[in-house]
Each structure stands twice: as structure tokens, then as C-alpha cells.
């Protein structure tokens, strides 16, 4: 238990450093891409390729950390992040779109490892503390809401004639802090999966046929996909409406508050009320976000809708992660988590890639209408698991 209280702040701080960089990238990458790319419909391509890199890294990251340990994997990944800051800065200064893409791919590789912070927390605690452990680690991202977009806003003109080059250069300090903090990580013995080699491990086909796994995957994939599609298109939509960057930074900041502030109580709500109402509220918040976006494009519309989008993501992501941890044995941890992360970030990559084209070619309303089928699938899957699935869990 002492290790638990030692590690949660470390993992939460590491999460916050990752999300500071992600929030800065989310706030700026579409605008940088739009400035650097000759074909303006490719503005969100760098961010999309970042998510693709995260997707492709998720499986090898899981198995590398199974072999070498999660602490090694987390610290090793920061090498890619530091490289990315250098490449992105150079790309913006010298107006090289391809190099900026390489930089975002390196950011994505880092995230492919960093997304396991929450699993490192969940897998180190007893069953009834899993949702809290996940929540507390994700709560570290709240710091990013105030630092990431504001850092982008403050530093975007630090280097003359190269908007946002200074922003990406400033991320080097963020990653150095993350590396230093992770050096103090001391995971408990059960985090090493070598001790589970003699335990029966079911085939993948058995694991993925479980109703709980199916619904966890749907909520994780489509919940994150909806958030990514709308969030990625938002800076472009606001730029199209002639909002200054400070307003875009403000909206993204409060979107990230919506993503991570609920983490302080999401785990407790799950423990008290069960997963079903949390997943349901997350889904309904997504529908309400879309409704507000379709009603208008004032600053208040963007602000309130993106706050709700953050809340939707939080409840669905933490709920899906908690549900997923109930579907595997310790010996099945790496492959189950890898399948989940690969699937989630495949969807996220497609959503990010689609956002720029949909916004550029068809506009803000089409972007929002495009996520309605995904939200409907999430809703139907939750109701199916709650009321109709013979394999439903009592905690729903």
C-alpha cells in the first residue's frame, strides 16, 4: 500500500507531463499544419499520423514492457519525445511540412508508451481500488488544461517569423521533468509479468468474445474517436469563424478541464453507483455536446460544448478502462491491453485524419453530425450489456 501511495503521484505527474504536451499539440498542430501544408485539407494530417504512431506503438510497447518492465519502457519512450521537440521546432522555422510530420510521429511513439500509465496504476492495486487508481492518474492531466494551451499562447511568438516554434521547443523542459519524476517509480512485484508465465492464459479469441470486453472496446474506441474528431476540428472551425488564437486556446483549455477534472470523483462514482450510470452519462454528454455545436458558433457555444465533450470522454474512458480490467487474468494483461490500445488508437487516428477534411470540405455541422452514429452505437452497447447480455457483470 505504501508503494501505491508512492507511485500514484509519480504516475499522475507523468500523465500530466504527457497531457501538457498533448494539449499544446492539439491546440496548435492543425494551425501549424494549415500553415505548412500546400494542400490545406491536410492540416490535421500530422495529428492523425501522431495517433497512428500511437496505435502502431501500442502492441510492441506492451510486450517490451512485459519483458523489460514498465519503468524502463516509460523512460525509454521519452527519448522519442525529446527528439520530437527538436524536429518540430526546426520544421516550423524552416517551413518543412514533412519534418513536422516526422516530429508528430515521434510524439505518437512516446504516447504509445505513456498511455499505459493508467494500467500501471490499475494493475498494482486491489479490485475495489482499480477505478480510483485509474481516475487519480488521469486526474494528473488537469494540470495540462492550464499549462498546455497557455504555454502555446505565451510562447507561440518566441521565435521571430516562426509561429509556434517556441511552443514546441518549450516542451523539452516538460519531458525532462517527466524523465526525472519517472526515475523514482518503484512498481510492486506483481507489475512484473514474469511471475505469471505458468498461469493459464486463454486464447485471444476467448478473451475478445466476452461481453464485457466488447463493450469496453466499443466505449473506449468510439468515445475517444468522438472526442478526437470534434476536438481536432475545433481550432479550424474557430479560425474559420475568425476567432483569435487566444479564444481557441481558452476553449481547448476548458475542454481539457472537462476531460480531467471529473477524474477526482469518477472512480468514487463508479464504486458507489456502478459502471452503467457513468457510461450512460458519458454518452448522453456526447449527444448534448453535438446538440450545442449544431445550435450556434458563438464563443459560449464552443466553450460549453467542448466542456461537455471532455466530460463525455472522461466517463467513457475511465469506465471503459475499468471494465476492461475485469476481462483478463494477470497472465493475459499484456495482450489484452495491447489489443485495446491498438483498437482505440486506430479509431482515434481515423477520426483525427477525417477531422481536417470534413471541416475543410463540408464544415462544422457535418463534423458534428458525423459523430452521432458512433454515440448511438455506444449507447446501444451499454444498454445491451446492462439489460440483455447473459454475460453481464454484477457491478453494472
CATH topology, anyone?
Answer: Growth Hormone, Chain: A
Main β-sheet description = none
CATH class: Mainly Alpha
SS-based class: mainly alpha
Tell me the radius of gyration. 20 Å
Average pLDDT number: 88
What is the N-to-C order of secondary-structure elements (H for helix, E for strand)? HHHHHHHHHHHHHHHHH
Extract low-pLDDT stretches: 191-197
What global shape is seen?
globular
Residues in helices, as a percent range: over 70%
In DSSP terms (H or I, runs of 4 or more residues), the helix count works out at 17
Identify the CATH homologous superfamily: MFS general substrate transporter like domains
Number of domains: 1
Span between termini = 27 Å
Number of E strands? 0
CATH level-two architecture: Up-down Bundle
- Which percent range describes the beta-strand content? under 5%
How would you describe this protein?
- Helix content is 79%, strand content 0%.
- It has 396 residues and is mainly alpha-helical.
- It has one domain (2-185, 202-388): Growth Hormone, Chain: A (Up-down Bundle).
- Helix 3 (70-93) packs antiparallel against helix 8 (165-182) and helix 7 (142-155) runs antiparallel to helix 8 (165-182).
- The model is unreliable at 191-197 (pLDDT under 50).
Write a concise synopsis of the structure shown:
The protein is mostly helical.
Observed structural traits:
mainly alpha; 79% helix; 0% strand; globular
Secondary-structure map with pairings?
Elements: H1 2-36, H2 45-68, H3 70-93, H4 97-114, H5 117-122, H6 130-139, H7 142-155, H8 165-182, H9 204-208, H10 211-240, H11 245-260, H12 263-273, H13 275-295, H14 299-324, H15 333-361, H16 364-370, H17 372-388
Helix pairs in contact: 1-4, 1-6, 1-7, 1-8, 1-10, 2-3, 2-4, 2-15, 3-4, 3-8, 6-12, 6-14, 7-8, 7-11, 10-11, 10-14, 10-15, 10-17, 11-14, 12-13, 12-14, 13-14, 13-16, 13-17
Amino acid at each position: 500500500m505504501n508503494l501505491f501511495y508512492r507511485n500514484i503521484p509519480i504516475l499522475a505527474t507523468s500523465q500530466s507531463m504527457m497531457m501538457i504536451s498533448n494539449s499544446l499539440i492539439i491546440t496548435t498542430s492543425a494551425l501549424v499544419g494549415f500553415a505548412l501544408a500546400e494542400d490545406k485539407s491536410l492540416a490535421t494530417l500530422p495529428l492523425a499520423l501522431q495517433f497512428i504512431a500511437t496505435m502502431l506503438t501500442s502492441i510492441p510497447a506492451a510486450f517490451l514492457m512485459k519483458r523489460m518492465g514498465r519503468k524502463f519502457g516509460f523512460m525509454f519512450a521519452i527519448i522519442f519525445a525529446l527528439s520530437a521537440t527538436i524536429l518540430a521546432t526546426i520544421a516550423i522555422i524552416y517551413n518543412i511540412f514533412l519534418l513536422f510530420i516526422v516530429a508528430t510521429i515521434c510524439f505518437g511513439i512516446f504516447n504509445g508508451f505513456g498511455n499505459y500509465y493508467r494500467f500501471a496504476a490499475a494493475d498494482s492495486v486491489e479490485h475495489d481500488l482499480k477505478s480510483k487508481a485509474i481516475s487519480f492518474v488521469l486526474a494528473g492531466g488537469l494540470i495540462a488544461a492550464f499549462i498546455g494551451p497557455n504555454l502555446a499562447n505565451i510562447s507561440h511568438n518566441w521565435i521571430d517569423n516562426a509561429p509556434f516554434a517556441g511552443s514546441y521547443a518549450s516542451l523539452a523542459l516538460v519531458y525532462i521533468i517527466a524523465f526525472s519524476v519517472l526515475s523514482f517509480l518503484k512498481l510492486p512485484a506483481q507489475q512484473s509479468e514474469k511471475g505469471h508465465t505458468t498461469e493459464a492464459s486463454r486464447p485471444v479469441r476467448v478473451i475478445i468474445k466476452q461481453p464485457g470486453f466488447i463493450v469496453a472496446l466499443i466505449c473506449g474506441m468510439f468515445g475517444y474517436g468522438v472526442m478526437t474528431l470534434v476536438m481536432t476540428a475545433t481550432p479550424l472551425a474557430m479560425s474559420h469563424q475568425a476567432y483569435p488564437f487566444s479564444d481557441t486556446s481558452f476553449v481547448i483549455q476548458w475542454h481539457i478541464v472537462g476531460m480531467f477534472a471529473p477524474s477526482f470523483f469518477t472512480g468514487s462514482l463508479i464504486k458507489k453507483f456502478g459502471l452503467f450510470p457513468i457510461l450512460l452519462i458519458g454518452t448522453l454528454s456526447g449527444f448534448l455536446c453535438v446538440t450545442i455545436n449544431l445550435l450556434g458558433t458563438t464563443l459560449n457555444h464552443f466553450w460549453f460544448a467542448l466542456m461537455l465533450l471532455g466530460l463525455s470522454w472522461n466517463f467513457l474512458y475511465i469506465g471503459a478502462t475499468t471494465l476492461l480490467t475485469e476481462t483478463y487474468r494477470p497472465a493475459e494483461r499484456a495482450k489484452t491491453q495491447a489489443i485495446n490500445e491498438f483498437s482505440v488508437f486506430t479509431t482515434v487516428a481515423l477520426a483525427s485524419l477525417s477531422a481536417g477534411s470534413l471541416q475543410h470540405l463540408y464544415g462544422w455541422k457535418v463534423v458534428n453530425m458525423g459523430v452521432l452514429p458512433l454515440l448511438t452505437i455506444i449507447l446501444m452497447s451499454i444498454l445491451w450489456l446492462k439489460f440483455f447480455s447473459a454475460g453481464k457483470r454484477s457491478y453494472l
